[in-house]
Amino acid sequence: MAYIIGIDIGGTHADGVLLENERVVARQKVPADQDNLVNSVIILLGRLLEGEMVSLTRVQLSTTLCTNAIVRNVVDPVAMFIQAGPGMNPEFLNCGEHVHFVDGVIDHRGHILRKPDINSVRSAADRFARDGIVSAGIVTKFSHRNHLHEQQIADAVAGRFEYSSLGHRISGLPNFPRRVYTTLLNSALKRPFSHFKTAVETGLAEL
């Protein structure tokens, strides 16, 4: 038999379905304990399977936890490292209290014109880490052409932050301001999403 489990975790409830050969054979809804999501997932899976051992072919996941965090404005603060280059007022991209504008230039063709000041990057990273920031975002203006400076900045701050996002991995498009703010959001949500991911993995391991 081909079994699929679908799990959706929101702010108040966790819903689950069990499919056998594309036919729904069980549905369950349990409270979502945000302080103990692992327990909520274990209870949900236990009620879905009722002690039966099945061979799962797929587990389908969805969650509104990240959306809820944005709406409630409870996202994590992020240390942002931004290389704007010439021709743009960097204050336009000042997206929080923990922003460091990195020196250095890569032009629109991806040519390196000036290397980043790595020492200032390390100093800023140390300062942000002392402030208790656990997530970082790194974006350079033309990283969709050449992401070397983003990688060099990431290497320089390695070990100081638990989570990080690089702009060129978020988008390969040239909209620099959008890349900055999307990277900011991605980093701000990595910890709550990791919490969700760990809860599901732990719950499945208990099967």
- Our count of helices gives 6
Helix content: 25-40%
The number of domains is 2
Main beta sheet: strand number and arrangement?
4 strands, mixed
Strand content: 25-35%
Description of the structure:
With 207 residues, the protein is of the alpha/beta class. It has 2 domains: 3-63, ATPase, nucleotide binding domain (Nucleotidyltransferase, domain 5, 2-Layer Sandwich), CATH 3.30.420; 78-191. It contains 6 helices and 10 strands, in the order βββαβαββββαβαβαα. The strands form 3 sheets. A 4-stranded mixed sheet has the order 3-2-1-4. The model has no long low-confidence stretch (mean pLDDT 92).
Summarize the structure.
With 207 residues, the chain is α/β, with parallel strands linked by helices.
Keywords:
207 residues, alpha/beta, Nucleotidyltransferase, domain 5, 2 domains, four-stranded mixed sheet, four-stranded parallel sheet, 10 strands, 27% strand
Topology of this protein?
Layout: E1 3-9, E2 13-20, E3 23-31, H1 37-49, E4 56-63, H2 65-72, E5 78-83, E6 99-101, E7 105-106, E8 112-114, H3 118-130, E9 135-140, H4 148-157, E10 163-166, H5 167-170, H6 176-205
Helix pairs in contact: 1-6, 2-6, 3-4
